[in-house]
Design goal:
With about 750 residues, the protein is α/β, with parallel strands linked by helices. It has 34 helices and 20 strands. The chain is globular and about 85 Å long. Its cofactor is pyridoxal 5'-phosphate.
């Protein structure tokens, strides 16, 4: 009989531990769980009574890798083809396939798998085993399934060189490439761990990667998070008693000490071979591989993560490439990040993050998400959370605060039109910096948050770019853009590129820098500011100075920001995780309105970053110039980046300009740039006028529909007063959850 030894059930332990812990809902994997997990592993070897099950397409090297892994672990090695199927059938696998045909072969193969049992072994599956659901469910009960993910072109080359004809599903009219592509859906369904295997990687190296991946899978203790305001040698009592995992930081958003969460051991590194293995992959496939490395399966299993990513980047994006890269002129390329439902780069995080959040939270509490936006985040977060399953909407609500007079008319119309039964917008009679600061203060007001939890059973959470789950998906499109340039033959892998990003809150820029840390050859990250150029001055001088600065309303409102929250994560990184220094700097900024970097830190910063800024006049001139010469319309934020890129690039390598929003969202400014004398104030009329230009890209597919919904729409407006904001929050909780 099959000896089944189950791991501690991760989510069950999590939810049971939390069922009586609604007062501290941020700890989704609390200390009790960590101790159970750690004690279990301390008494078992890497393998124990579980099996390591190697899965992958024919030609992936499962048999050879399995033998090496078995030797290293000194355990039995079983090849399903040779040791199970051929023994059971008393004939070769190719003969069986020839005798019974494709469909009957799969059924017979599955029956043999159902009768098979083993423990403490390394098992190499056949390439077609994963296509039989019952057989895979049976064998997976007592094993960790490791997917050897080899690029399709490499597999085809290997099979051709071996002259392998025994491929289940291969028949006249169906190509080998089609067969391999078809099977991927089954591999994706069953694996626990993915190991990327390039074309020239030796089996010995693959075996080591398998062992490393299994170790990571079985030790979630290694992947914890710390606050940017805590140092390794000076942890708070709270941090000593609780470890924070991915699930925790998604829910909690902001650390208790006011800092931002970052991975304690940094981000994972990909080898050049692993990146090259993703050159032919789709955007969704790249996202899954990258995010699997950043999210431990104890928090979100690979199969569930795949489901979430498919939901986020499937039908919700109008372009099949999701984030296409387009040649603009010379050595400049545009990364189009506006093909999501609300026409801005925020959709990449906010179509994904709500589903991550819904999966991670305990079922015993309600959650209210608080968001501050300078424009594009509002509609994106409203749309994202409104797409949750109905059961999740009942326990997750969202309140979006935005500067009432600090966003474009179309942005405001979007935020009104995207309101749903669990998501609302509130205009605040102030600027974005007030909205963002107010939310931070609310999160650190323990009296207020405790009152909401005790009185209403509701916890607060954040979906702004301070939330780690907002940053993580942005890394993907920066990496994907580089891989697309390689795929298009513009560069070879390893050649450097520069990246220029319109920057306000520093999240998008930080994501590009993280992609660089993970192995993407980015040379310089260029920060492009508008006239609110605090970041530019800081990068040039090391002085962050808000004294006497007032926010200037511009044609690029998403970067009308003076306090860049995610800059804190970057400074923590280059300061060697000196949380005390970060605390000192940001306390000084809060209390005195300025701080200055030490000379050595400024030197490090200027090795990574360069910066420039652009006036409104230059922004409009750039839009007009690009349209006149190419027929392409830039939005106002992309135009800011284009101007800065023109000034700062040295033209020795390609430069990728992040096109962060669709121009339709800023129709009045665009029409002005195109030198239209009379502009109708009705947003719908403005879009219809723009559509008459037949420009590239065409008018955004979702904006017209959203604007039509706002004809009878309304929203709340409140004063810039903390007590008023808290009153709105309490009222919403009463109306939605009670």
């Amino acid at each position: 009989m099959l000896h089944v030894f189950q791991y501690p059930p991760l989510r069950l332990i999590t939810q049971n531990c939390l069922s009586s812990m609604c007062l501290k809902p941020m700890l989704s994997r609390p200390v009790a769980f960590a101790q159970i997990w750690k004690s279990w592993f301390s008494s078992h070897s890497l393998l124990g009574k579980k099996n390591i099950i190697l899965m992958g397409p024919p030609g992936a090297g499962k048999t050879t890798t399995g033998r090496i892994v078995g030797q290293k672990l000194d355990c039995p090695v079983i090849d399903i083809d040779d040791d199970v199927l051929e023994t059971t059938w008393n004939m070769s696998v190719s003969e069986k396939l020839r005798d019974v045909g494709y469909e009957e072969f799969l059924e017979e193969e599955g029956k043999a798998l159902l009768k098979f049992s083993a423990s403490g072994s390394v098992i190499s599956l056949s390439g077609s085993n994963p296509m039989h659901a019952a057989g895979m469910q049976h064998i997976k009960k007592n094993g960790i399934v490791v997917y050897l993910d080899v690029p399709t072109t490499v597999i085809m080359s290997r099979l051709k060189s071996k002259q392998m004809e025994r491929i289940v599903g291969l028949s006249p009219g169906i190509s080998l490439k089609d067969v391999l592509q078809f099977r991927k859906q089954f591999y994706k369904r069953w694996f626990d761990i993915r190991v990327l295997c390039g074309g020239d990687v030796a089996a010995e190296v693959v075996a080591e990667k398998v062992l490393d991946a299994v170790k990571r899978y079985r030790d979630s203790e290694l992947e914890t998070f710390i606050s940017t305001r805590s140092s390794r040698s000076g942890r708070s009592t709270e941090e000593d008693s609780n470890k924070f995992y991915f699930s925790d930081v998604v829910i909690q958003g902001l650390a208790l000490d006011g800092g931002l969460f970052v991975p304690e051991r940094g981000l994972p590194k990909f080898t050049a071979e692993e990146w090259q293995g993703l050159i032919e992959a789709t955007y969704v496939e790249r996202a899954q591989v990258i995010l699997e490395r950043c999210i431990h399966p104890a928090d979100i299993p690979a199969s569930k993560l795949a489901e979430i990513i498919d939901t986020a980047y499937g039908e919700n994006f109008s372009c099949s490439k999701v984030a296409p890269i387009r040649h603009l002129a010379g050595n400049q390329f545009l990364l189009e990040l506006f093909h999501g439902p609300t026409a801005s780069f925020k959709d990449f995080a906010l179509q994904l993050m709500p589903h991550l959040f819904a999966y991670c939270i305990p079922r015993s509490c309600n959650y209210l998400i608080l968001v501050a936006t300078s424009g594009d985040t509002g509609s994106a977060v409203l749309d994202g959370f409104s797409r949750l399953h109905d059961t999740d909407k009942q326990r997750i609500a969202l309140m979006n605060f935005f500067p009432e007079d600090g966003v474009s008319p179309i942005q405001k119309s979007q935020m009104i039109g995207c309101q749903k039964e669990n998501a609302w917008s509130v205009g605040v009679k102030s600027d974005f910096d007030f909205c963002q600061t107010a939310i931070k203060q609310i999160f650190t007001n323990s009296d207020f948050t405790g009152f909401l939890t005790v009185e209403y059973g509701t916890a607060l959470a954040a979906a702004n770019s301070i939330n780690w789950a907002r940053l993580l998906p942005q890394i993907v499109y920066h990496a994907s853009a580089y891989l697309d340039l390689v795929h298009q033959g513009i560069i070879s892998f390893g050649s450097p590129v520069d990246i220029c990003i319109p920057t306000g809150n520093f999240g998008n820029m930080l994501a590009a820098f993280y992609a660089k840390m993970m192995g993407i050859p980015i040379r310089k990250c260029i920060c492009a500011s508008n006239e609110n150029n605090v970041l530019t001055e800081f990068i040039r001088t090391g002085v962050y100075d808000l004294r006497g600065r007032k926010l200037i309303s511009s044609f690029s409102p998403a970067v009308d920001i003076l306090k860049s929250s995610n800059l804190e994560r970057y400074l923590h990184l280059i300061a060697n995780e000196d949380g005390q220094l970060v605390t000192q700097l940001f306390n000084q900024l809060e209390n005195q309105g300025h701080f200055q970097l030490q000379k050595d830190l400024l030197g490090k910063l200027q090795q990574d970053l360069v910066a420039g800024w652009c006036s409104d006049e230059d922004c409009l001139a750039a839009i007009h110039s690009v349209y006149s010469t190419t027929g392409y319309i830039l939005d106002t934020h992309t135009a800011v980046a284009k101007v800065v890129a023109d000034r700062l690039q040295d033209r020795t390598c390609p430069i990728i300009i992040s096109s962060t929003a669709h121009y339709s969202k800023f129709a009045p400014a665009i029409l002005r740039a195109l030198r239209i004398a009379e502009i109708n104030q009705n947003p719908l009329s403005q879009l219809h006028l723009l559509s008459s230009y037949s420009a590239l890209p065409p008018i955004h597919w979702g904006l017209l529909e959203t604007l039509k919904k706002t004809a009878n729409g309304d929203h709340q407006v409140c004063a810039a007063d903390m007590s008023v904001l808290m009153s709105h929050i309490e009222t919403l909780i009463q109306n939605h959850f009670m």
